Structure formats: C-alpha cells, structure tokens
Automatic annotation (TrEMBL), chain A:
Gene Ontology CC, one term: extracellular space
Active site: E368 (proton donor/acceptor)
Any one of the GO BP annotations: proteolysis
Signal peptide (UniProt feature, chain positions): 1-20
SMART domains: Zn_pept (SM00631)
PROSITE patterns in alphabetical order: PEPTIDASE_M14
Name of this chain's protein: M14 family metallopeptidase
One Gene Ontology molecular-function label: zinc ion binding
Protein family: Belongs to the peptidase M14 family.
Organism: Draconibacterium aestuarii
Domain Peptidase M14: 34-392
Sorted UniProt keywords: Hydrolase, Metalloprotease, Protease, Signal, Zinc
Pfam families with a match to the protein in the record: Peptidase_M14 (PF00246)
UniProtKB/TrEMBL annotation, chain B:
GO molecular function: metallocarboxypeptidase activity; zinc ion binding
Organism from which the protein derives: Draconibacterium aestuarii
Ranges for region Disordered: 412-432
Protein name from the UniProt record: M14 family metallopeptidase
Signal peptide segment: 1-23
Alphabetic keyword roster: Signal
Length: 579, 611
C-alpha cells in the first residue's frame, strides 16, 4: 500500500541523510565529520586493514537475518605475541539499529590505534600489549535500514526477526511510512478547532497543550504513516520487535516478562555469531558496548537482585570513575539503576565470558545549547532554572538547530494530503537528530569515548613475577619464595568467574624440582605459610587489580626450577631459578 | 453424534492394529537401542508421509533427529514428543519409538494431527547405558571443566571392584558421619549425635581422587545435561546445566525447531516426571499474586492510580483500559509486562482443572488394564526441564510421562484388634526409607537380588582397604528389557487418547440482523469443540501461542469491527461471538468469513447477507 502512495509522491527535497551518504572518499586516516552508512563502514574497515595489514585482521564473522556480513577488525601486533596470549579488549557498537554514532566510536578507536601506532607512546603500548577486537556494527541490518529507509531518531532498533506485535496473524505489516519521501519519519498534525494543542507564542513550530476551557488549533496524529493493515491503528506493527540487547543468555527472560527478548536466548543469528566469536577469544577481559543516548557508563549487574563480588566492583570502579573525568557530564552506575533488564549483552559478557562489561551511552542532548550562560549546565538544572521547562527547552533546541546546525536537524511543518486524514501537516525532528550529535560535534564525542576504551586497555592485568628469596634448608632441599604482582587495575580473572568455576582458574605451576610443600605466605615477617594439602606444585588463585601475593615452595633437588603463572586472560608470566 | 461414532470406530481400529503390531514387530521392543540402532529404526520408519529432520549435532558428534509423521498434512495442529532428555532413561526413548510405530501402523491418529517425535535429544549421555562401566550418565560431551583446575575431565568415577557399576564406597574413618543401619546392614545412615550415635564411616561415590585435589569424581566426562538446560528456571548454579540456556547445540536446535513450527499445540515429554498422573506442582515462591498486584509509581502518576494499595488483575485491566486508546487491547499479558509481574513459576489455576480431570481419566484407563498404580511417585519436573519450558514458555498443554516406577512394597495389614505393643523397639520408626524398602523388594523380586551390590572389600589405591556397595545405576528407571513392550504398550496409547483433546476451532453458526438502509449486524459464533482451551491459561498470560484470526472479506463497508479480528481465547467446549456492523451498497452481496490460523484448519464460510 505504502509503495503505491510513495509512487505518487514527487520527491522535491534532498534529505539530510542523502547528503551524508554522498560524502568524500573513504581513506585513512578516517574522517569523523560525517556518519558512515553500513557500506561505508565496510569500506572504512577495508581501508584500515589495507593501510595496516601487519597489525590487523578483518573478517566477516557471521551473517545477519537479512544475510548481511558482520565484520570484526582485530588489532594485534603479532611481533609482540600471539593474539590469544594478550589481554583482549572488546569494543562493539550499534546493537540498536538507530544508535549509529556507536559505530563511529569503534571506527575512531581503530583509526586512532592504527594511525598513531609508533608515534604516540601510550597507543603504541596498547597495540603491543593488548589484542583489540572491534565490531563497529552489531546490528548490520538495522544500520542499513536506518540510512536507507524513513525513520525517526528512535525507530529501527530491532533485529530483523519478524514479530507479530499486534497479534493479528500478520508480521511487521504496519510500520511507519515515509509519506513525503524525505527519509525521515516525522510527526503528523491536523488543524482541528477541537484539538488539544495550539502553537507556541514564541515559536510556532512548537505545539503546546491547551489549558482546560481554552480553544485548540491542532490534534497530533502521531508518527508519519498510514494504517497499512486497516485495523484502526497506525504504525503498531513495525519491524521486529526483537531487542538485540535483551536476547543474550545470562538471566534471559521470555518476551512476556522482558519485552523484545526474542523467543529464546541468542535466537538472533548475528548475535549468536558474535557470542561464538567472543567465546573463541577467551583472552577478552574487558568489553564495551556503545549505545545512545544520555551520557552514561553502565556496568553489570542489570538487576537489583544480583550482587557483584566486591573486588569486581572495585575493578569496574577503576575504569568507571576515571571515565567520568574523560567524558564530562556522564554518570557511572550499575545498569539496573537506569532500568532493570534481562538478557543484556554486558551482563552476558561479564557472567558468561568472564570479562568486565560496560555500556557507554553516547551523547547528551543538553549539549545542544543556544544561550550565553553555558557552563555545561545539566538538563535537570536547566529545568529548575526556567519556568515552562519543556517548551523553553524546545525553543532552545530549535534555535540551536536554526543557528548552529544550519537547520539540518528539524523539518518545518509542511502541508500533505494524507490518504485517510486528508489535508494534514508533516514536520518535526529528522532521524539524524535528537539522539545523534550533529557531525560537527562528532569528533569530540568519538575521541573522548575512544579514550575511555584506551584507558581500559591500559588497565588490563599485567602479571609480574620474581623469585625473591632462596634458602637451602637441608641438603638438596630449598625454600624458594616467589612474588606475583598485578600492577594494573583490572583483575586477571573476575572474582565472579572464580566463584562460578567459569573456566580454568589462574594458577602458578612449579616445574623442574620435586615440590614437597608449598603455599601462600600469609605473614612474611613471621614466616607463616598456608600450605596446600595436595599437589603443592600447582597453586590456584587469581590476581585482583593492584595486588601482590607471595608463595613459598619447599623443593627437593638441584638444577633449574621454573615458575609459570597461567592465566586465560592476562599474559602468562615466567620466573626461574637455579638451585 | 456422528463424531462420537467415528471416534468409537477409530478406537476399535486402533486396538486391533495394536494387537497386530505386537505380533508383527516383536523384535523392535525387546531391547534397549543404541544411538545407531535408533537412527536405523527412524530411517526404517520414514515413508512418503514422514520426514526425518536432523535438528542438531551433539558435542559428541551424534545427530539429534525428529521424525515428522504427517508431512502431507497442512493446517492441522501438531504434537511434539520428546523423550529421555537427561539421557539416563532409555525406556523413554523406547516409548517414543513405540509411539511412532503405533502412529505408522494405524492411520487413526494421523488424520487431523501432525506429530514430531524426538526419541533421543541427549545422545551423548545415552551412550552411558551401553558402556562397560555404568553410572547413569546425564551429561553430553560439551567440554566443561567442573573443578576449574588445569585439566579437563580428569577425575571421573572408577570401577574399583570391576563389576561394571559405579556404586558407593564406604571408608572407616574417625571423622566419618555414617553408621550401618540396625534395620538393614546394607543401608548406611547418618549417625544421630542427639541419640549418642558416633559416625564410623565416610561415604563417597566409587572412585579415586585422580587429580589429588581432595575431591572424588568431581570432574568426569562432559558436560551439559540437556534435560536441565532449557530457559524456564534455568538452574545456572548447577554445573551440569551449563552457563546459559541453549549453550549446548541440542537445546539450541530443539528450541529453534519448535519455534519454527508454531503449529505445535501440545507437547509430550517421556522421561521421569508424570504430568499425566501428577499435575505440575505449584507453591513456588516468587510467583506474582494476581489478586494483589502493585502498581509501579510511574503508572500511578500517569494514570492517577493510588499506588499504596493492591489490585486484582481484573481491576488493573479496567483501570488501564480507561487510560489508553480504545483500540489498544489490554490483556493479562499486557498488564504483566507493564507492571513487571515477572515470570509465572506456578501452574495457573485454570490449567490445573484440566490436568486434574485428565489425570483421573488416565488412572481409570490404567486401572482397566490392571496396570499397577501402587508405585513410588514419579519425580517432580526439574528446573530447566523441557516439560516445564513447554508449559511456561510455549504456553501449550505439556504432558509428561514416566513409563516405569518401582512398585511399592506391600505393607502387611495390621490386625485392628492387635493390642498395642509394649516393646518400643518394635514401635520406633524404621531407619529404612519407603523408597529403599521398595528398591530392595524390587531387586529381590525382579533382579534376583542383584540390584544392590553388597558391600565388598576392595583395595583402594590411595585409601587402602575400603568397601564398595550400593544400588546399581539405572535400577530405578530401567527395568529388564523383556518388560519394555508390556510397559510401553500399556501407557503410551494414552498419549494417543490425549491427542483427541486438542482444541478444535470451527465456525459454529452465524446470525444476521437487518437494521435497515442496507445496514446489517453480523454475529458469528466460533466454537472450540476440543477438551482444551485455546490458548490455555498460561498461553493467555504469555501470549505465545499463534493467534486465530477471523478474516471477513467482501465488498462491504465495516461500520464496526475489523477485517481481521483476533479471536482471543476460547475455553474448552465454549463459543465466542464476534460482531460486525456492515453496510452494503448497493445490493446485498455475499461475504466470506475465514478462520486463519497456523494451528487449525482454515475454514471458509460464505454468508449471504440479506439473503
């Protein structure tokens, strides 16, 4: 139905989105004064890989529901070690199809690591010491359709598994329709003397509610669209809805409990592919999923009832509290404090893959200011400063649009002949607004957020080990003392993973001599050792951030004895001594 | 009436054919079958009306297959049958094969229903029954490092006495907490310190601490237990469940297959619980009380509702209806989502009605066959089990059946006139549980007393002299192979009977009232002639079962009502009325009404308006 309507529409205006897609050639270094379409993202990744073939691996790790490739870029300097032997840093974005600037943060992070490698010491270290796994676009179908189709800033989040939202036996048959063909789904309003809205006295683009008894001018008809399935409702069964951030395995709940959960954990084929990708990279110790919007760093858990172990909270805080300083205006909190969710990605990452998982909610719309008192005032404060807050804020946002964004964020109301309603007006915020910064603000956003990822890379565990004391206590019997240190802020293994027996626990193994006894030194000055009852040559433990432990071994024999610290996530450490 | 007659005829035919089956195919059900044999049987069963689907490959490389019977049928409800999810009940697999055989030998139950039969969802674990040393394996070959040490599967059981069974070992130890029961020297009981008893033995499962970590047999082969790895009440704390539901490919493949077939309107599980006899149990904490619903603050503000008190579901629906657009349907499922009622964890009261009713019928069915019902009770369904998932997540009737339970030991009737004994020793409660008594009696009667390995001295490589003994694995679930045919033959036919109870949605009648000026009211009466509602109560709560849509077509204008109207729920034997206000121009034409559903027959009725 909509196709026929669109056919009749003469497209007169060139949309903001169309302009964005025609930007300059994609080359390294990448530019961040623009948004990349799905195809552009692939081109950008290919350009990075082509420019730095030694440092990168680019692979399609799976297909989406609509058969698009999901790409992962791995950055690792193979000269400094194998991929899986270095602490892994994972970054993804755009799991919700409309949250596109998350993809730009990922691209920026890759671009920054690669173009500044060998030039900037911090970045060189991060490339040499860590493996970086970057999936700029999780919801590839979503990104494709966000650019290609008419959308609101908030539509097209879902992955493309059809769902019968209105329970009428038809799937995805009544989404919004881009009636004026401008690439945006805006609002519809109709002149109505009995309507409950009138235009704002200062800015006629804004509609304000009439007071009781006051005459109205307009009725708001909701988002642009028609009743495609003729059921009396508009736009009630759009694509999906399967929320790709409610479909993960940890603490998953069915759709009647958690909207958008999907029928079963990882029913999304692209998500399953990403899960398999992460599972086969057990070195990943920290991971980011970028979203929009609001300016937040969110950590596990996603439900109030789930308690984290204290040392894991401490590790999260090392990142979270520093991140706040890099991204002014952000807040850092457990994700359930925003709202509780089931089946979210970062909880899955934390509980089922043993990696510290954080969500970055990009962009604060409060940064769209048009006033002379800007000191980075928060939206909440603004509200208390002014009288009619909503309208005042709308006026300012429109002035920002008019005078700073050159009118690219908002479409003025224009008449349209609706097939059902007759003469109406269509107008409002375009899809590339509200949740997305205007491209001129993008550079700052991607840089600050990528810097937080870099901060986590710097904080991935670094295990150092030394034999600090050897004493012959009898003939061919030695007391050897070993010190293990984690000099960085993240644990070598989450306390949760140790508790859940998620995978092989970190351990210290002695080889070369016969270990008669061995254990953790509980008091070095008093020579107190907690000896392990059996198999003293293997000691199981893990190293929290900024921690140090000492072990003692009584070893029979002569010659070389070596000590290996094995960790699935941290780089393994070795020390040896000749007895 | 005709239907009843037909039904009688069909049942008669079935009985006849079952007898025939017994005579013909004895060879199939006198042994327990290995994975390869099962696949061969399934291949043998394929014909032009069946399809064999491979839906997953286990971590051990075994195929998980589903036999579709009735591939030629369209627009009919389907029943999914899964058996032996935990892999340690080989009899359940035989039951599923027997059911398939019955369906293939007689056409009676494949006219209006399609069947999907999955006899072996956990093939890796099922190999455990055929290995030289048996311990009742339930896990697949998924690599799980249960003790998180530096080795995988390094500390499994060890058959110390070489009898082919993993039982228990008892070790004399000053720190022991067990003593030998006074009532039966084979039974170990916990020493009761309050009675001054002092423990003498430690008890472990039979084996060696192969990895010297102080624990016995904590990291054997595998794996994940498919039977507890589904997402309803997924028991993450149990290492055998894996880390999340569907982590192992069998479970993922089964869930994918079932959701790809929304025509599945009923699910049977053959295993160790028995919803056919004992309805699913409730009383679990944490379930929402639908009579005392709290309204979150934000809806309180939005809708002007007093949040300090609680409301019934009906009250909440009314309050919400008053505040949302008229076309927005407020159902219990919508309310549950909005106010965050959480997951249902107890069977809903309305559903327990049919469970109880059918249970009574089933008991009669068995009594008529002189089937012994005086047995130990079936196991309750486990958290993460397939049968619970089918009920709570698919929202369809889920019936389970265990095909064998140990007969209860017959208690000798006390003489009513007997004078109460003065001897306290005789009066005290026996230290032997009813279950153990029944197992000993069963072992003696059916297994020539070999169901319990009597404690024998064994030289343990680490512990020195110990004793090994205990009930053998599979004793409780797996009778001798010669009993298979009798057991499945008596019980499995009930699953065919149950298939007759499926909901059956048809257009019963209609009524046209002329209002004048070409305007008519059309009232349509849609009946559910089945013995189960559609959806059942849990299906209404979770909104998962595929909807039934009544489609009205014709060159008319609808003043009220829609072209496509969701039927909503229709209880067993109930009728639902749908109404349209129709304007016809210029001449009174015909309209058609159609039942559109992926589950039921898509019936079309011509209606001559004004004619």
């Amino acid at each position: 139905m909509v196709r026929y309507i669109v056919l009749f529409i003469i497209i007169t205006s060139i949309s903001f989105a169309a302009k964005a897609a025609d930007e300059a050639k994609i080359e390294v270094p990448l530019r961040f004064d623009r948004y990349y379409s799905y195809n552009d993202v692939i081109k950008a990744l290919e350009a990075l890989h082509k420019a730095f073939p030694e440092l990168t691996t680019l692979e399609a790790i799976g297909k989406s529901e609509e058969n698009r490739d999901i790409y992962a870029l791995t950055i690792n300097n193979t000269k400094t070690g194998d991929e899986l032997n270095k602490p892994g840093v994972y970054v993804d974005g755009n799991i919700h199809g409309n949250e596109i600037q998350a993809g730009e943060v990922c691209l920026y992070y890759a671009n920054m690591l690669l173009t500044k490698y060998g030039k900037n010491e911090k970045i060189t270290n991060a490339v040499d010491r860590n493996t970086h796994y970057i999936i700029p676009v999780v919801n590839v179908d979503g990104r494709y359709h966000f650019f290609a189709d008419g959308n609101t800033p908030s539509s097209n989040r879902s992955i493309r598994i059809p769902k019968d939202d209105d329970h009428d036996g038809l799937y995805d048959e009544d989404g919004p329709d881009d009636l004026d063909g401008d690439g945006n789904i805006c609002q519809m309003r109709i002149k109505d003397p009995n309507g409950n809205y009138k235009v704002d006295s200062e800015d006629p683009r804004i509609l304000v509610r009439v007071k009781p008894g006051e005459k109205g001018e307009y009725t708001l008809l909701g988002y642009e669209g028609i009743d495609n399935d003729n059921d009396g409702q508009f736009n009630e069964d759009a694509e999906g809805y399967l929320d790709p951030n409610r479909n993960w395995g940890y603490d998953w709940m069915p759709p009647y409990v958690q909207q958008g959960a999907g029928n079963f954990p990882l029913s999304g084929v692209g998500l399953k592919a990403i899960n398999d990708f992460i599972a086969s990279r057990p070195n990943i110790i920290v991971g980011y999923a970028f979203h929009n919007t609001g300016g937040m760093w969110l950590r596990a858990p996603a439900a109030k009832t789930i308690q984290l172990i204290k040392s894991d909270v401490t590790a999260f805080d090392v990142i979270g509290k520093e991140a706040l300083k890099i991204t002014p205006g952000y807040v850092y909190k457990p994700s359930f404090e925003l709202y509780p969710t089931y089946g979210d990605f970062t909880s899955h990452l934390f509980f089922n893959h043993g990696a510290y998982g954080l969500v970055g909610e990009l962009f604060m719309r409060s940064q769209e200011t048009y006033k002379n008192d800007d000191k980075g005032v928060k939206e909440d404060d603004l509200e208390s400063l002014r009288g009619n807050t909503q309208t005042a804020r709308s006026r300012e946002q429109l002035q920002f649009n008019d005078n700073v964004a050159q009118g690219e964020l908002y479409k003025d109301w224009k008449p349209f002949n609706h097939p059902v309603y007759g003469p109406i007006e269509i107008g409002g915020w375009v899809k590339m607004s509200s949740r997305l910064p205007h491209p001129f603000m993008l550079q700052d956003l991607v840089h600050r957020n990528a810097s937080v990822v870099l901060l986590s890379a710097e904080n991935t565990p670094d295990i150092k080990m030394q034999v600090f004391n050897v004493k012959e206590i009898d003939k061919d019997l030695f007391r050897v003392r070993v010190r293990v240190e984690n000099t960085n802020g993240l644990s070598s293994m989450t306390a949760q993973a140790v508790k859940d027996k998620l995978y092989v626990q970190d351990h210290l193994k002695v080889s070369g001599g016969k270990v008669v006894a061995g254990g953790k030194i509980t008091n070095l000055r008093l020579n107190k050792v907690n000896y392990k009852q059996t198999k003293p040559e293997v000691q199981f433990f893990a190293m929290p951030g900024h921690s140090m432990v000492e072990y003692e071994f009584i070893i029979e024999g002569k010659g070389n004895v070596s000590f290996h610290y094995f960790s699935q996530k941290a780089k393994n450490a070795v020390a040896s001594v000749k007895l | 009436m005709l239907k009843k007659l037909l039904h009688m005829l069909l049942s008669g035919f079935l009985l006849f054919s079952v007898n025939q089956l017994t005579a013909q195919s004895k060879s199939d059900f006198i042994q327990y079958h290995t994975n390869d044999e099962i696949q061969q049987i399934l291949k043998k069963y394929t014909n032009r009306k069946t399809t064999l689907h491979t839906i997953a490959e286990s971590p051990g490389g075994n195929a998980v297959t589903v036999l579709e019977i009735g591939s030629d049928l369209k627009d009919v409800p389907a029943i999914f049958v899964g058996a032996n999810f935990e892999g340690n009940v080989p009899l359940a697999t035989e039951g599923a094969l027997y059911l398939a055989k019955m369906l293939l030998d007689s056409a009676a139950y494949t006219q209006k229903v399609k069947w999907y039969i999955m006899p072996q969802p956990n093939p890796d674990a099922a190999t455990g029954y055929f290995t030289d040393v048996k311990y009742g394996r339930t896990v697949n070959d998924y690599p799980v490092n249960n003790d998180a040490d530096d080795a995988l599967n390094e500390d499994g059981f060890d058959d110390l006495n070489g009898d082919g069974f993993i039982t228990q070992m008892r070790i004399k130890d000053p720190e022991g907490t067990y003593i030998i029961s006074k009532d039966n020297a084979l039974v170990m009981k916990k020493a009761d310190t309050k009675k001054g008893e002092r423990g003498e033995y430690k008890i472990y499962s039979e084996g060696i601490d192969n990895d010297e970590d102080g624990q016995y047999n904590e990291d054997g082969e595998g794996g994940i237990n498919v039977g507890i790895a589904f997402p309803h009440l997924f028991p993450r704390a149990q290492s055998e469940a894996g880390m999340y539901a569907g982590q192992t490919p069998e479970v993922y493949g089964i869930m994918r297959f079932i959701y790809d077939h929304p025509e599945i309107a009923m699910v049977y599980t053959i295993g160790s619980s028995n919803f056919c006899i004992e309805p699913p149990v409730g009383g679990r904490k944490g379930d929402a009380n639908l009579d005392k619903i709290k309204i979150p603050n934000r809806y309180g503000r939005m809708f002007g509702i007093d949040v300090s008190r609680t409301y019934t579901m009906e009250e909440v629906i009314e309050m919400f209806k008053a505040n949302v657009p008229a076309e927005m349907e407020i159902t219990p499922s919508v309310v549950a989502g909005m106010v965050g009622l959480g997951a249902a964890v107890n069977p809903l009261d309305d559903d327990l009605i049919f469970y109880k009713k059918f249970s009574e019928e089933y008991k009669k069915f068995l009594e008529e066959k002189n089937f012994n019902l005086e047995t130990l009770p079936p196991s309750p369904a486990k958290d993460g089990s397939f049968e619970l998932w089918a009920y709570y997540h698919l929202g369809v009737p889920s019936f389970s059946m265990n095909l064998f339970s140990i007969p209860k030991e017959k208690v000798e009737k006390k003489d009513d006139n007997e004078v109460p004994s003065e001897n306290k020793e005789e009066e005290r409660e026996s230290e032997i549980s009813e279950k153990d008594k029944a197992l000993f009696a069963y072992s003696e009667k059916e297994w020539e007393d070999s169901g319990f390995v009597k404690w024998e001295k064994v030289n343990h490589p680490k512990l020195g002299q110990i004793e090994v003994g205990g009930f053998i694995p599979y004793l409780e679930t797996t009778p001798k192979a010669e009993k298979i045919e009798e057991l499945v033959g008596a019980q499995i036919p009930w699953l065919l009977q149950l298939s007759n109870k499926l909901p059956d949605i048809t257009i019963e009648d209609y009524k046209i009232t002329q209002k004048g000026s070409g305007i008519y009211t059309l009232e349509l009466f849609v009946a559910n002639n089945g013995e189960l509602g559609y959806p059942i109560s849990i299906g209404q709560r979770n909104n998962q079962p595929a909807p039934v849509i009544i489609v009205l077509n014709g060159d008319v204008e609808l003043l009220q009502g829609k072209n496509r109207t969701p039927l909503g729920s229709v209880g067993a034997h109930q009728i639902r009325k749908l109404t349209w206000l129709i304007k016809t121009t210029p001449a009174p034409p015909n309209v058609t009404v159609k039942i559109e559903s992926v589950v039921f027959k898509n019936e079309v009725k011509q209606i001559n308006i004004g004619g």
